[in-house]
Amino acid sequence: MANIKILKSKIPFIITLFCCVTVSALAASVRAAEDRKAAETAAKAEPKQVIVLDAGHGGLDSGCVAINGTYEKDVNLDIVKDLGALLTLNGYEVVYTRTDDVSIHDDGIEGVRNQKVSDMENRLKIVQSYPDSVFISVHQNQFTDSAYFGGQMFYTTKNSANFRLARIMQGRFAQLQPGNDREVKLIDNGLYLFKNTEQPALLIECGFLSNPEDAANLSSAEYRKKVAFTIYSGLSEFFDGEVKNKENTKIGETESLLYMQ
Ligand SMILES: [Zn+2]
Description:
CATH class of the largest domain: Alpha Beta
Bound molecules: zinc ion
Strand content: 5-15%
Largest sheet: 6 strands, mixed
Helix content: 40-55%
Distance between the termini: 96 Å
């Protein structure tokens, strides 16, 4: 009897407990469904930002050759691959103009010069296929005077955000390369890939292969990773600023006004 009494007195408690468990299980499943819906909506509302990465040169075109024999085309490709991996890992969609040591000219084109023209046309087609992207072209510099060193950013005024992107990136390279006080440089009416490219675009010369220290650094896989991270962090800073800019003004408007002065 005593046991029955105890059981009876526990029944409401057990029912309450059962109800609580049922209610919280229900609530959890409703929450999970809501979370899924929110994630789906966010995914629909915000497509991934596309970054088009161009490793300069390739194949028969080696670009410049470092004083230690390293080819520019190899340095460019290595940096672009490291950068692409970082961007992909952090939720960006990456499009490459090349991922191997090749020229991307059309089949059947004869002659190095014609192949180079076709290669550049095909690169431009890729860039223009992604009008909402940011375009980054990676190169290495050279000069007759071996004292010149350090990365330098080249931009056009085709997109009003370019100047800001160039300055941010130049600042990041100054952190990587102590003593690099280079200024960003305008290349309107210049380079084929940039002349008609309207999305944000930047040509990055990471250093001088004609300078002994830059050449030694850029020949090392470890340093190339640092360069890739430098570019990645510059892009992150650029996109953070774009979000703030959108709240107040059109993208890059303030900066392009600064430039006009
Ligand atoms: Zn180059």
